[in-house]
Specification:
CATH topology of the largest domain: TIM Barrel
Number of strands: 20
Strand order of the largest sheet: 16-15-14-13-12-11-9-8-20
Number of domains: 2
Number of helices: 9
CATH class of the largest domain: Alpha Beta
Shape: globular
Radius of gyration: 20 Å
CATH superfamily of the largest domain: Aldolase class I
Helix content: 10-25%
Structural class: alpha/beta
Strand content: 15-25%
Amino acid sequence: MNATFSTTYWHALDDGKIQCDVCPRACHLSEGQRGLCYVRGRENNEVVLYSYGRSSGFCIDPIEKKPLNHFYPGTPVLSFGTAGCNLACKFCQNWDISKSRQTDTLAGVASPEKLAQTAKAYDCRSIAYTYNDPVIFMEYANDVAQACHEQGIFSVAVTAGYICPEPRKAFFKHMDAANVDLKAFSEKFYHKLCGGHLHHVLDTLEYIHHETNCWLEITTLLIPGQNDSPQEIEQLATWVAEHLSLDTPLHFSAFHPDWKMRDISPTPPETLSMARHIAKEMGLKHVYTGNVHDTEGSSTYCTNCAKRLIERDWYQLGDWHLTSSGQCEYCKTLLAGRFNGPPGMWGRKRQPVYI
């Protein structure tokens, strides 16, 4: 498969360069030059996508790993990514993929139709664009999503939300669910540790929630001494409550030392519990802890009667007290999210797939 794909989100500049218009980085490209994301570059006086139809690997995961706790719980999701990223996070947990500049990272080859057929063959309820940010390979992701929708398979974006308004519309109209990585609630953090700007991500969050039918959940990786102060967590939760919804699920995830921040200790479980408590005090109804064994912080509760509706230990489901339509079995209150029938039984296993 030819991995070079012509794109439309760019324009010519007066100085002879071309500006890529997919994300706020707005890379100015000379002939033969690639953008910071590595997978988009200038060739024959246009911006092309080099990773179309190619992947760094395929794997079936539990949907809870994305993490999505209110989108068909317990079901399997076919996950894949490409290479590169349009942010420069010093704490990247998938740096071997997102920071890759090697074409051999893109070893897997699969057309959109082949991916849809594979997801269906393995009884996956959805397909996820993950491991690196799908906004940088959005044309490939969009074509895969369309092929999957023809097979009745949902599409999930795991993204940092760093994308410009026009391509954002084109991308999220194909997505059925998204987990957006809100890395912090500080412009200083975004600028210093990610090479980006907070307000672009907040714009994306508001757009998804208010302008699309895409189910939205948010994850914040808490890094000791960087974005885990009670004041910042309160500001973040307050923004979600006021600009999105009290029903928007918020995940606080544990950091482990990686990439260029190996000198910082892992996140203590007590920090995650503290953050969850603060966010719930701010009115958010569904706040979770992640990357730790914490059944209380991982489980879902009724917003009316407070009974536990979905028991979780990491990615493993336990007790289930929802009707087939997503209502509490005790008081019939409808749980926010996407539910249809009994829970899936995929569990916590990961299954590599070779296409």
